[in-house]
Structures are given as C-alpha cells and as structure tokens.
Design a protein that fits this description.
12 strands, about 350 residues, globular, about 25% strand, alpha+beta
C-alpha cells in the first residue's frame, strides 16, 4: 500500500427547482449546501478496495473485479473502478469517508462521494481533468456501475457549485452560470422523515415512462415540447402526464432563475409551489406525508416550498424570510414531529 493519502471534499446539494428534467433536455437550478463530505484516498498496489465511513460501523472490503451489489459501499467502489479505468490510480484504494449528508435524503450523498473520490484520484495522478469532466465521469459511475439512470445535475452541482450560490445549468450543453441566493431569505432544507434510494426501482420506472413519451413524440427533449400539444395528444397515461411535467417544469426553472436575479421572492415561491403541484399530480413522485409537509410550510409563512430530489421520500426545500425562519421552523416541526431540520443557505 502507498503511504501517501490524498483528500478531497464535495458538498451536498439541494435542487431549488427542475426535478427529473436533467435527462429530458431542461434547465435546472441546484444549490450547494454547507453540509457535505470529505474523503481520504490511499492508493494500493493490489486490487482491494476498502471503505470506512462515519455512518457505518463496518469497514467494507471489496475488489476491483466486483459488480454493484446494493451494498452501501457501491458508490465508492464504482468511483475507484472508474479512477482505475481512467488511469488515475494503478490498483485499488483505501477510502475513508466523513459525511454530514443524511443518507436517503435526496441531497446527493452518492454523487458527492463519487465526485470527491475522483477528485482525490485526480490529485494522486496530478492529472489535468476539469471539474466538468469529473462530473461526467461520476454520472457514468451511477449509470453504468450502479444502474441508476440519473441525469447530470447532481454531479455538476457537487463538482462545481459552492454554498451560497445556485447553478443555472443547461443539462444538454453543460453550460452554466452562477446565481447569488437572496440575502434576506433563507433556503431551508427539511427532511420529511421518509427515506428512499434511487436504486429502489421507482426512479428508473419514471425515466422509462419518459422514454416512452420521447419515442411517441420523436424527440429526446420533452422539455422543448408545447404543453398544449402534449395535452391534445392521444398518448396514453401515465406517459402523457410525465411529458407534461417536463414541458411545464422547464419554463418554471427559467422563471425561477429570473426571479432570483431580480430579487422577486414572490415569483420564486410561486414557481416552487407550482413545481411541487406538478411533481405531485403529473410526475406522481410525491407522497401524502410530504404533500402535507409542503402545504404546511407554505401555510406557516414560507414563500414557496417543494419536494426536492428523486422523489418518494427525502427532503423538501422552502424559501423563508430570515427574520421569520426560527419561528416558522419551530411551528412546522411541531406539526410534523418526524421531520427534521437539515440546514439552510
């Protein structure tokens, strides 16, 4: 084993708006969180990969020859395999993970882990690989090794974004701009108390339904379609509803970006509220308990709130005036004792 250790970090991310459209041709608006993870990577001469993490008591021991097995160490193993294939390391590695990102929260813990490992491996090699390239390779780990048919948003956000800003990302071209978050309002992340995994099949089922809609309309970009054309089509449900979500969510992201730039919090909140309604009714990725949490967040004073992440559990995100944040949070958690505060930016 090598005596030299290489470290890297990556933040968690929350998506302000633009869910499930990063593989359907749309814009997204993720923001980096102050919570995140740091990893230490020590290259090995053999093909063994060990993974230790503060969230788990066991030390996982895998090899470069293994496939994904549903184990918690799969993202780390896949990242080391990718680093090996890219020539960044010559063998396996010992990985030590220190994370403050809750598992199953929809805040991109797996993307952050993979990105951080690839960045540490880049340092080990001294390679000239851009952060965007790192994001693309990290997505390949989730798609090809873990079997998660995700888009590129999470990897780009945790590879390039910094806390206090949002990333307006074109998921087709990977061009992006950084947008400042409001100074007098907080972006607050609340865990619903319901956990989920992207590998549980429901995420993949939704993507498959989008693929059916793409084939019907003859396009890879559902976000570019006219919602009226979708509504008037004879495409069967649920495929028509999936396409309708994408075609209406993309304009909502553009509205939210404009609202952030102009400081129009009411418009930002309206876009977030409409986004949640679409995720609930057209994409059918929410749950009754999360719908209630979102509704109460707005009733109690948030300008806007919505489910964030892949769906079927995880977190909501809300925009709240900073001078009301503490009272609002206390009232919301009093109504929803299983929910918990994750962080704010």
């Amino acid at each position: 084993m090598s005596d030299e250790t290489f470290s890297a970090a990556a933040p968690g991310r929350v998506n302000l708006i633009g869910e499930h459209i990063d593989y359907n041709g749309g814009m997204v608006l993720p923001a980096a969180l102050s919570i995140g993870l740091q990893i230490d990577l020590t290259p090995r001469a053999d093909r063994v990969v060990t993974v230790s993490a503060n969230d788990y008591d066991e030390i996982a021991s895998r090899t470069l020859d293994e496939t994904a097995s549903g184990h918690w160490s799969d993202p780390a193993l896949g990242a080391v395999q990718r680093a090996h294939a890219l020539g960044l390391i010559s063998g396996g590695a010992d990985i030590a993970v220190r994370s403050t990102i809750p598992q199953g929260s929809g805040l991109s813990s797996s993307a952050a882990l993979i990105v951080a490992i690839l960045k540490a491996a880049r340092s080990a090699k001294g390679a000239d690989i851009s952060d965007t390239h790192i994001a693309v390779e990290a997505r390949a780990v989730e798609n090809e090794f873990m079997g998660v048919p995700c888009g590129i948003m999470d990897q780009m956000a945790v590879s390039l974004a910094t806390p206090g800003t949002a990333m307006a990302l074109n998921t087709k071209t990977l061009t992006h701009s950084i947008v400042d978050l409001p100074k007098d309002h907080a972006i607050v992340v609340i865990h619903s108390g319901l956990t989920r995994k992207l590998t549980d099949g429901r995420y993949g089922a939704l993507k498959g339904e989008c693929d059916t809609a793409k084939a019907y309309f003859g396009t890879d970009d559902l976000c570019a379609l006219d919602p009226a054309d979708i509504a008037a089509s004879d495409l069967d449900q649920p495929y028509r509803k999936r396409a309708l979500h994408c075609a209406t969510e993309h304009p909502r992201v553009l509205d939210a970006i404009d609202a952030l730039k102009s400081g129009d919090i009411a418009a930002l909140g309206a876009a977030m509220n409409a986004s949640h309604a679409s995720m609930r009714d057209d994409f059918e990725m929410s749950l009754p308990a999360i719908d209630a949490l979102v509704a109460d967040a707005v009733t109690l004073g948030a300008d806007g709130a919505r489910l964030t992440g892949g769906g079927f559990g995880g977190c909501i995100v809300a925009v709240v005036a900073k001078d009301q944040q503490h009272a609002w949070l206390d009232a919301l958690l009093n109504r929803h004792p299983k929910a918990r505060f994750i962080g704010a930016v």
